[in-house]
Amino acid sequence: MARLTTFSRILLTLLIVGGVAAAVYYFGPGIKIGTSKQLEGIKVSDSDVNNVVTTAELPVPSTQVSTKVTSRPLVRIGAYAWNAQSGIIAANGGPRTTAGSRMEQNGVNLEIIRQDWLSELRNLQMKFVEELDRGTPNPKNGVFAVMIMGDGAPYYISSTQQALDDKYGKGRYSLQVVGCVGLSYGEDKLIGPPKWKLDPSTMKGALISAVMGDGDWVTAVNYAFANGLPVNPDPATYDPGAVNFYPSANDDYIESAKELIKSQREGWTIQLKEVVAGKLTGRTVDKKVDGCATWTPGDKMVFDELTGFTDIISTREFNNQMATTIIAVKEWAEANAGTVSNILKSAFEAANQMKQYDSWRRKAAACVASTYQLENADYWYAMFQGQRGEKGGISYNMGGSRVFNLADANQYYGLTDGINRYQAVYDQVSFYLKELNPAGFNQNVSRIVPYQEAVNLSFLKNVRGIDEGQAYSSDYSQSANKVMASGEWLINFNTGRATIRPEAGDVLNQIYNLVVQAEDAKLELIGHTDNTGNRDDNYSLSVARAEAVKTYLMQKGIPASRFQKVDGKGQDEPVADNGTPAGKARNRRVVIVLKK
Description:
The protein has three domains: 255 residues, 3-Layer(aba) Sandwich (D-Maltodextrin-Binding Protein, domain 2); 121 residues, no CATH class; 113 residues, CATH 3.30.1330.60. It is built from 21 helices and 20 strands.
C-alpha cells in the first residue's frame, strides 16, 4: 500500500468501500432499491451536420514520423478504438505526427494513445494532472485530453471532476470539452432480436450489456424512453416490466459484445434480485444477456458469432447524439490555447479532404489501423462508410462514421444557426444521470457539471485560415414512412383548453432535446384527451393541443417542414381508466412519432 500513488490509494479505498456497500446492498434484506423509471426521451435537431468545402486535393501524409516538430513539446491524447476519430488520426498521419501531415504543417507534435477502458482513460488524464501539479509545464506522463463520445461527457467530466476536487481541492483543476472532430453515424448501436425493432414493448424484461453512463448506453436508453418503456436504474436487480442493464466488465465496449455472445452461445447467466414496482420479491433470477450496446468492431463480432440479431437503433437515427469530443485539462489547454486550436484546425482540414477525395479516406483508414493496431485499412475503410449484411434471413448494419470540418463543428455547436445540438445532448444525458443514477453515480459524484462550465468554445472560435463553407440542411421534402420511435408524453394543459401550463416546461424541453438529436427524422404529433365533455369538442381540443406542441417546437427553431402530420384522436383511444383522476391525467397526452 505504501508504494501506491495517492490516487491509486484513493481508488483502492473506493473499491473496498464500494465492495462492502455492494455486499450489504445485495444480501441485506429490506434495503432501499431503485425503482424503474419511464422518462421522456432525448432531443434531436432539424438539420443534418454534413458540410463540404471545395478545396484542392492535398498530398496525403507519409508514414515517417515528422522531424520538423520534434523540438516542440510532445502532447498526448487518449482515445478509444473508434472509427469516428478518423479525421484527427488522418490529420496526424497515424499515432505519431508524420512528415507532410496537417499536424506537422500547423506545428503540432501529437501522439494518439489507444485505450479502450474508460477507467484507464481517466487514470491517464489524472497522471497528467499529477505532473502538472508538481510544476511541470508540459507533463510527459498521461494525456492532456481524451477523445470520447460527446454524450458520455457529462458522466466522464462530472466523475473525474469529483476525483480532481477530492485530491487537489475544489476548482483547482477542471476538465472541459474543447471541440469535436467527428460524428458517429450508425457505428454505435443497440443490438438485439428483430422483435425489439418491430415491437419495442417486447424489450420489457430484457437484459442489455453496456458501459453504464457511456454513449452506447445512452442510445439504448433513448430508444426505451422514446418508445415509452421504463428503465431499471439498478444493475443489481431485475425488473420484468422494464428494460434492464448489465454493466460490462472493465467499462469496455468490446466486453459488451463478448458478454452477449457468451450468454447466447454458452448459456452464461447473471444472478439478479427480482424487483417489481420498486420492491424486492425475495426471488433471484438467473438471467441471460438478451442484447448489447456497442460499436465497431463490437457489432461485427456479434453478427459474425450469432444468428437472430440485428441493429435495433443507432446513431444513424439519433444522428446528432454522438460527436467525437475532445475533453482537455482546462488549465493546460488555456495556457497552450494555440496548440489546442491547431489540433482542431488540422483535424478539420483533413476531414474536408476526406469528404472530397477517396485517396484521403483510404489514407485515413490506414492511419486508423496503425493507430489502433486492430484489423487492417480495408476493414476501417469499409466500416467508415457503413456496411450491410444478412444472416439467417435477418439484415443488419455495421459501422458508419462522419468527420467534421470547421463548418460542421460551428453548426453542431449552434454558432451558425443558433441550434446548439451538443447542448441538447449534454443536458438530456445529464437528466438521465440524475434520474437513473447509473452505477451509483449520484452517491459518488456531488454534482453534474453543467454545460456552461463543461464546454469551452474559445479554441474552436480561434481556428483561422479555413474556408468554413455553407451549412447543409436536411431535406424534409419527401414523406417518411418508417417509424423510428413512438412515445407518449404527458403535457399539462389548462382544463378544457390547449394552453400549455408552465409546469409542462421540463417535459417539452425533453421533447425538444429528442427532436434535436434525431435531426434527420420527420415528426408526427397526435393529441389525445380524456372523456370530459362531448366527443366533437374533444376531437378539436386534441388537435389544438398537438398544434400547441408544434408551435412550441417551432419557436425553439424546429422548421415547419419537419412536421409531416399534426392531428388529434379526441377521447377515442384511452390508455387508462377515465373513471379515475389518475386515469384521466394519463389520457391527456400527446403522442410524438419520429419517422425516417
